[in-house]
Hints:
Rossmann fold; Alpha-Beta Plaits; 6-stranded mixed β-sheet; 4-stranded antiparallel β-sheet; 13 strands; binds adenosine-5'-diphosphate; binds magnesium ion
Amino acid sequence: xxxxxxxxxxxxxxxxxxxxxxxxxxxxxxxxxxxxxxxxxxxxxxxxxxxxxxxxxxxxxxxxxxxxxxxxxxxxxxxxxxxxxxxxxxxxxxxxxxxxxxxxxxxxxxxxxxxxxxxxxxxxxxxxxxxxxxxxxxxxxxxxxxxxxxxxxxxxxxxxxxxxxxxxxxxxxxxxxxxxxxxxxxxxxxxxxxxxxxxxxxxxxxxxxxxxxxxxxxxxxxxxxxxxxxxxxxxxxxxxxxxxxxxxxxxxxxxxxxxxxxxxxxxxxxxxxxxxxxxxxxxxxxxxxxxxxxxxxxxxxxxxxxxxxxxxxxxxxxxxxxxxxxxxxxxxxxxxx
Length: 337
Ligand SMILES: Nc1ncnc2c1ncn2[C@@H]1O[C@H](COP(=O)(O)OP(=O)(O)O)[C@@H](O)[C@H]1O
Ligand SMILES: [Mg+2]
């Protein structure tokens, strides 16, 4: 449903994208993961026909994004990074407007708007100006408007940035429901967790280049999973704690600050094992937490991997079981600071 071939884009002397390629099939969710400035929005704009590439070609739903832009536009939905709702119009009229623009008659537009208001839990607020909506409601309205035309392909550019955890979870559910109906989704995010929740496949972008390509599980396997961090009541118990954890089959890290115990774990269930081991050893703790890897950890791990992998210069950092061929890009240079 989406095929990008060596897409590059420059703005003056800034190269926003430096040859990105991938293909995704119907009903798949691809997540573009990257920090600010990585090139995510530029890629989405190109695929959604809002911006021509400087070089390279792309097809969406079978049509060329430059030569057949109108055909592409009829088959896609786009939710931009900055919510595109008309604040003066109420929620319902925002959706009716989009439906009318897409060619629905008055009654049809109204029907579609009401369906979507219901699906996005906005019925109660339908008559209020969108300008009075909370951040989460605006995002939902924005997402609803990208669903109006029943798109085959949905582009979501950082759909949950700035949302509270509850709104974020609600939005994920809406996307999942859409995917279950066969919609193909390309989503950008700065959150590894979001990719984990939704994506079949992840492409990590760094300075406009693909620096990793694979599944979230593959990416996380490379990061060594999560970490349990415990704060001891008495720092003098650090050795006793480390001994107890080793006896429990765990591998606490050494060289942490006074009284802090750090234990890399594969699964969140290991949190209980850490607690039990410390408790049995009579080591008191004031605080314990499970830290999930973040996008920063991904970049760091990829940078380390690339540095220790100097022999394969010119290759994209391959994840185990990587989809498609490695692309000739220098991963080290591509790693964001
Ligand atoms: N219209 C534009 N004019 C000039 N530079 C741009 C423009 N759009 C994006 N850029 C630059 O391209 C790079 C990638 O930007 P963008 O695609 O917005 O990244 P992301 O969405 O990952 O944060 C950045 O360096 C950004 O400053
Ligand atoms: Mg962006």
